[in-house]
Amino acid sequence: MLALKDNEPTRTFPLVTVGLIVANSIVWLWEWKTGVNKEVFHYGYYPCTVDHECLARLVPSDRLPWYEGAFTGMFLHGSWLHIGGNMLFLWIFGNNVEDAMGKVRFFLWYLAAGLAAAALQTWVTLQFSGAMGASIPNVGASGAIAGVLGAYFVLLPQARVLTAFFVILIFLREIPAVWFLGIWFLFQLWDGGWAIVHPEAGGGVAFFAHVGGFVFGAATIYLVAKQRTLRPRW
User: Fold this and answer.
1) pLDDT tens column, 26-54
2) CA nearest 225: which of 124, 130, 156?
3) What is the pTM of this model?
4) Using CA atoms, how far apart are residues 38 and 132, in angstroms rounded to an integer?
5) Are 59 and 66 in contact, with CB atoms under 8 Å apart?
6) pLDDT for 144 beyond 80
């Protein structure tokens, strides 16, 4: 299933959300032009850099230290599908969370959500995947965006999300955000647990970054929100 739009208005133009989408898109176009693998290998975040157990045959010597890679990795993506899905979710759900927080606070919180996501993924990777798994670069905005989804889940559970369901044909339905985001979160938990015991089936997706970001967003939104969201349009 794929979210297409929601029914929640905002008080002001979502400048930070749009700015993040533009920034991620510019970085992706730069990656695409100069070589995706080259930039991912250099600027990606490697969990192994935390405990200094990186495999030399997998991790380049000019990699960034973990405290830099954790930030740069948030703005890198591995494919058109990767960035397209992430930016769609950020556009749908980010504007309302930004509206509740304010622009500067939302930007700083977004970065914190990305770091929280990376922290949980790092812990899981180091505990269960060993040096091999920890030497794979983590990239993508999805951890930080998962924080946005967690915040939206708490703020606007009854919002309606126009969703495309792919069952041979495509069906469009409006469903409550609590259902859409709840199902999405459960999928991350399920797929993350499966990837631990069957790492070859994980597809390189950092599922526990999604889990960590979502939990961070849900747990902190009322600590940083400045105002309530508006009523839905329909």
Assistant:
1) 999 999 999 999 999 999 999 999 988 88
2) 156
3) 0.91
4) 19
5) no
6) yes
